Amino acid sequence: MSENLEDTPRIPPTRRPPRGGLTALVALLALSVFVILTGAIGWFLAPAPRVVVATRTPLARFTPGTGNPVPTPVLSPSATLPPQIPSPIPTVTPSPRTHEVQTGDTLVSIAAEYRVSYESLKEMNRIDDPNRIFVGQKLILPPSAPTPMPGSREHVVQEGETLFIIAIKYDVSVDDILKANGETDPDMIFAGQKLIIPPVRGTATTSPD
Q: For residues 168 and 155, what is the distance between their CA atoms, to the nearest angstrom?
């Protein structure tokens, strides 16, 4: 009996892995799973990538002599330039001529001196009584008589002369003398006054002897 037991082959005992190695393996597997899950969750929660659209800048135009490129403006087809309104030309109003009344002046003498109409001088200065002017008063002068025509002459009024006598002397009409001197009243002349005598119509005249 003892011999039979000795002849029976022996089965070697099974070796169990140490407990510490199994624990490390489980921990490694758990860490791998955690890393994989964390990456997947982060990928789903990550914001979408930002898309940058490149814009096209206007071409640069090089101006010779400056050294710096000047951008060329790009106008849309519907763009229109505003109309240019010309600036108004300022008008210059000339100042009216004036005369300061001196001792011995009268409206008639002032009108004769500046070759203006006596009536216009009265109306422009709103004078009702021509005898009521005073020294130092400034009178506004109306426009002068027209420029004498070629061939006109000058006559100094003498004591006792009238426009009718002067007109007969020079063979012209009273109206022509009045127009040439800017007057309207034939009675408003005085001795020493200088009158423009227009030429005779249609003929060449010379001053009388």
A: 13
Domain positions in the chain are 100-140
Instruction: Count Cβ atoms below 10 Å from residue 110 Cβ, excluding itself.
Output: 18
Lowest mean pLDDT among 35-39, 77-81, 87-91: 77-81
DSSP 35-90: HHHHHHHHHHHSPPPPPPPPPPPPPEEEPTTT-SEEEPP---TT--PPPPPPPPPP
DSSP H or E segment with residue 20: helix 19-45
Specify the CATH number of the domain 100-140: 3.10.350.10
Which amino acid, residue 185? D
Q: Is 124 left (phi over 0), alpha (psi -120 to 50) or beta?
A: alpha
Report which residue type is found at 197. Answer: I
Q: Which two tokens stand for residue 38?
A: 């964390």
For the entire predicted model, the pTM comes to 0.40
The one-letter amino acid code at 6 reads E
